[in-house]
UniProtKB/TrEMBL annotation:
It comes from Candidatus Doudnabacteria bacterium CG10_big_fil_rev_8_21_14_0_10_41_10. It comes from the Bacteria. The keyword Ribonucleoprotein does not apply. Residues 14-189 form the Glycosyltransferase subfamily 4-like N-terminal domain. Keywords: Transferase. Pfam families: Glyco_transf_4, Glycos_transf_1. InterPro entries: Glyco_trans_1, Glyco_trans_4-like_N, Glycosyltransferase_grp1. GO terms for molecular function: glycosyltransferase activity. Residues 201-330 form the Glycosyl transferase family domain. This is Glycosyltransferase family 4 protein.
Length: 363
C-alpha cells in the first residue's frame, strides 16, 4: 500500500509533530505534504524526510510570514496530487484535511481539532493577528467564507479519527461526522522516571508555545504572586512580555530539546497545563515521568487527570483559581507508580496498534 502523509505546517515542534513522527515511523517511505516547511524552526529534525511543500513556500516571506497567505491556503492544500497513492493520511488542526483525493484513494484524517479560529475562537483570533486595522475589519466576513470551505472539505474525508473524546464531540458538532477516538502517543521508552527524583523542594514547570491561547501568562502571574519557583520552557510571541512581567523566582529557558525537557519534568514538583487543549500530550509526558499535573479542568485534561490521583484541576481559567490549587498542593501525596501507569495507557505501542487496526480495516 502506497501512503502519503499530510500535515498543516512544519514550522514548529509540538504535540501534533509528535503524532506526525509516529505516523512516519509507521510509514517511513511516505512523503510528507505540508503547506510550509521551516527547517530552522524544526531544528533540522526532518532533513532526511521526503518533505513536499505547497507554492506558498516560494512566495515572498512565505516561510517566516506564511500566515499572511491565509486566503491562499485552501487553494494551496488542494493543489497537491495524490493520484499515485492508495491512502492519504492527514493529521490536521486546520487545512490538511482539505486535500483533494479521488477514488479509489482513501483519505483518513487524524483530527487534532476542528479548526479553532473558525469554530471556537474567531474573535480572539482576530484581536491577536498582526495585520493592519483595515484588514482586521474585513477579517470576520472572510473567515465566515473559510468556515464554509472547512465544513465542505470535512464532508469529503472518508474516515475521521479524533485525538480525544472532546474532539470527537466537536467533530460531530461542527462537521456532523462520526469518528473513532485514538489518543496521541507518549514515548514511555524516552519519558520515564529516574530512581533519584527529588521533587519536594523543586520548582513548578510549564512549557509550550508562548502564545495568547496557551494562557502561560496565568501561570507566570500566579507563581509571581505566590513567590514559588517556576521554570518556563518554550518560545513565542509573548516571550518578551512575559519576561518583563515575571519576578526573580521565574526562569525562562526558551525552546529546549526533548532531553532537556525530560530533565525538567523529572525535577519538577508538578507540571502546570493552563490551556484548554483537545488532548495535551505534554500532560501525558509529565505523568510518564512520575510528575503530577495541575491542569485547567476542561477538554482533554478531564480524560487524563483524576484529581487527587494524577494531579489537580482548576476550573476557572484565572490566576486566582490556579493560585488556590497551588497554595494547597502537596507533591508527596501522589503515587509515582500510579502516575506512570496512567501514562502507559497512551504509549506509542498502543497508538500504533490501534492505528494499524483501523487503517487495515478500512482500506
Amino acid at each position: 500500500m502506497k501512503v502519503a502523509l499530510v500535515h498543516d505546517f512544519l514550522t514548529q515542534l509540538g504535540g501534533a509533530e509528535r503524532v506526525l513522527d509516529e505516523l512516519h515511523q509507521m510509514f517511513p517511505q511516505a512523503p510528507v505534504f505540508t503547506l510550509v516547511y521551516d527547517e530552522n524552526k524544526t531544528q533540522g529534525k526532518y532533513t532526511d524526510w521526503d518533505i513536499r511543500t505547497s507554492f506558498i513556500q516560494k512566495l515572498p516571506w512565505g516561510i517566516k510570514r506564511y500566515k499572511w497567505y491565509l486566503a491562499l491556503m485552501p487553494k494551496a492544500i488542494e493543489s497537491f496530487d495524490f493520484s499515485e497513492y492508495d491512502l492519504v493520511l492527514s493529521d490536521a488542526s486546520a487545512f490538511a484535511k482539505g486535500v483533494k483525493v479521488k477514488k479509489p484513494t482513501k483519505h483518513i484524517c487524524y483530527c487534532h481539532t476542528p479548526t479553532r479560529y473558525l469554530w471556537q475562537m474567531t474573535d480572539e483570533y482576530i484581536s491577536t493577528i498582526q495585520y493592519p486595522w483595515f484588514i482586521k475589519k474585513i477579517a470576520k466576513p472572510f473567515l465566515m467564507r473559510q468556515k464554509l470551505w472547512d465544513y465542505k472539505v470535512a464532508q469529503k474525508v472518508d474516515f475521521f479519527i479524533a485525538n480525544s473524546l472532546e474532539v470527537q464531540s466537536r467533530i460531530k458538532k461542527y462537521y456532523d461526522r462520526n469518528s473513532v477516538v485514538i489518543y496521541p502517543p507518549v514515548d514511555t521508552n524516552f519519558f520515564f522516571p529516574a530512581s533519584d527524583q527529588l521533587k519536594a523542594n523543586g520548582y513548578f514547570l510549564t512549557a509550550g508555545r508562548l502564545e495568547p491561547y496557551k494562557k502561560i501568562d496565568l501561570v507566570v502571574k500566579a507563581l509571581k504572586e505566590l513567590d514559588k519557583n517556576l521554570v518556563v520552557a518554550g518560545s513565542g510571541s509573548l516571550e518578551n512580555e512575559l519576561m518583563l512581567e515575571s519576578g526573580k523566582n521565574i526562569r525562562f529557558l526558551g525552546r529546549v530539546t526533548d532531553e532537556k525537557l525530560r530533565d525538567l519534568y523529572r525535577g519538577a514538583q508538578a507540571f502546570i497545563f493552563p490551556s484548554l487543549e483537545d488532548a495535551g500530550i505534554m500532560m501525558l509526558e509529565s505523568l510518564a515521568m512520575g510528575t503530577p499535573v495541575i491542569a485547567y479542568g476542561k477538554g482533554g485534561a478531564l480524560e487524563f487527570i483524576k484529581p487527587g490521583q494524577h494531579g489537580e484541576l482548576f476550573y476557572e481559567q484565572t490566576k486566582e483559581s490556579l493560585k488556590t490549587v497551588l497554595e494547597n498542593f502537596d507533591p508527596s501525596k501522589y503515587n509515582q507508580e500510579e502516575l506512570v501507569k496512567q501514562a502507559e495507557r497512551f504509549s506509542k505501542q498502543s497508538f500504533r496498534s490501534q492505528m494499524n487496526s483501523f487503517i487495515y480495516k478500512e482500506t
